[in-house]
């Protein structure tokens, strides 16, 4: 639509205003005598007018004189004013065409600005699409990185907690073993207050010095103690054992310390006073 309009504008600008071909109303011109000088035309006209008026071929009445004056006025106006009127109309037409061309130039300039604005918007839209794609790719990479970071963080936290549990289990096992050994030593030592046990242990020791068998009294006492302790623990399996107040307080302190170390800010459930064996 814009191209067709511009083509019409150029065609209108290149067109030359052509004047219409006006047929001459002069009789002498029709007869080919328009090139005769007026010095010859006037005498010939007077010479021909005398017999025409005398013979009353043409009667000069008032009406005829008015017609003659009107015809003379029309002829003079046509002869002398046609160029001025034509020039005036041509100038007016040129001014109208120039004004129309100026308006069309302004319209074309406005349309070009709109086209340029739309082209800029299309280019901007393409850039925004590219930026959006790059942003989506960056977000996907960030999501993957954050997921891996979270996985590693959780793994480290779990490993740290497992290490803590393993260390606590080893510590508890060592304490239990130390407690069992201490209790076993105390129990075996208490049994040495019996005279029969002392005599038997002394006899085995003397025999061992003499090259006999190794003493079995002490090993037997320790074995009997551990056997009885294991049987007692097995009989208590599945039942609840009450913890001392000191043990419960110690466990609660350890739970609070673990929660603080791991950044847990919620409420920590207290340790129950009884546990299942």
TrEMBL record:
Organism, as annotated: Aureococcus anophagefferens
Subunit structure: F-type ATPases have 2 components, CF(1) - the catalytic core - and CF(0) - the membrane proton channel. CF(1) and CF(0) have multiple subunits.
Major localisation: mitochondrion
Keyword Transport recorded: yes
This protein's record includes keyword Membrane: yes
Entry keywords, A to Z: CF(0), Hydrogen ion transport, Ion transport, Membrane, Mitochondrion, Mitochondrion inner membrane, Transport
Family affiliation: Belongs to the eukaryotic ATPase B chain family.
Protein name (Swiss-Prot/TrEMBL): ATP synthase subunit b
